[in-house]
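Researcher: For the annotation table, I need structure tokens for 3-isopropylmalate dehydratase large subunit. Please keep the output clean. Sequence:
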Amino acid sequence: MSSSARTITEKILSTKAGREVTAGDYVEAEIDAMVGHDVTGPLAIEVFESVTGEDGTVANPENVVFTLDHHAPADGVEAANNHNIVRDFAETYGTHQYEISDGICHQVMIEEGFVRPGDLIIGADSHSTTYGGLGAFGTGVGSTDLGTVFATGELWFRVPETIRFEVEGALPDGVYAKDLILRFIGDVGFDGATYKTAEYGGSAIADLPIHQRLVLSNMAIEMGGKAGIVEPDDRTVTYLERQSGLDVSLDPDLVSDPDADYEAVYTYRGSDLAPQVSKPSNPENAVDIDEVAGTPVDQVFVGTCTNGRYEDIRAVADVLKGEQIDSNTRLIVVPASKTVYQTCLETGVLETLVDAGATFQSAGCGPCAGYHQGVLGDDDVCLATANRNFPGREGSMQSQVYLASPATAGATALYGEITDPRGLETERYDDYAVATAEGGR
């Protein structure tokens, strides 16, 4: 390859294509890992069977992962049947398959060691961009593409242009990655990064723990992004070693070159940023929390592949320890995985939340897409740590959903109205050290 300046996206796709490529090129690339769940998996399986026939084989079964997470546990006969379709396929072809209590696909993929820096990963779920928080190129595809890749192990891509979001300086207390990504989406719009890579950098991003970097990558799709990437570093390696048990050797070239070509660069000073809330009914409706503070809410939902990790739930518990949630407000907490659930149990976080009046449920997607475990009714107002708040996203078309950080969610549950978390007793917890220090994982 030549020494021309490239983005991290161009470097990853060049490696996977076996030739140097730049934005706008089309490539056929080998997939390192792929994932489907109980909603998209059966459709992908149907495509695979139609493509390969009765004697079909899965190209790389060790790279294929299924999770049962959206309707988990099954909330009806159709969901139960879909679970069985996935179970049968995994048993027949020797692919990986995780059960109803194991967790959300993106969290499971990370915890179980299917994601490494520089990997190319696809999933039949739009939030497969999450893997970019570990320096991979992760992207969502349709079930048709996924089913075909089961058979071929490869997929074609158009190499996306890159938009860079750069944040310098320290973030103020009460401002987290969720606030950053809501601000970014608000600035570019819900389609402002369509089929682009959202690349996140600067000293403030480098200082973020991994669980917060994953938030940035997860919600790249909310501005249309094909991928969302944070350059991997020593913190990434340490996280993967402790969280996933991986032995990772980081390629020092797995960074964007200083003179790489960006379609646009957005720059921010950390000290200028405030907690953000996205108003109904689009993530792009992000405003400083002062504009909506005092808005009464009926429900607070903490969870999802965006903010359902231990550190997120811990942030809520830190606000509510020894307190009671507002008597007119419901607090629904759904951890992203069984591991997260166990850590909450071992560290006392689960007890703290239940004592405060929360409903703590088994791992899964649940309310995020309005399936079960906390669906909203007509005229319900919810503040959620989720990634989307489109009309009807969490239930009734007449409900309203605001998006915010876990710290804001905890403060809101305490007072029953949207509340600025600044000034409350909260701390920034390291992504891999807290649970270990306190006897957890």
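Researcher: And a one-line annotation?
Model: The first helix runs from residue 8 to 17.
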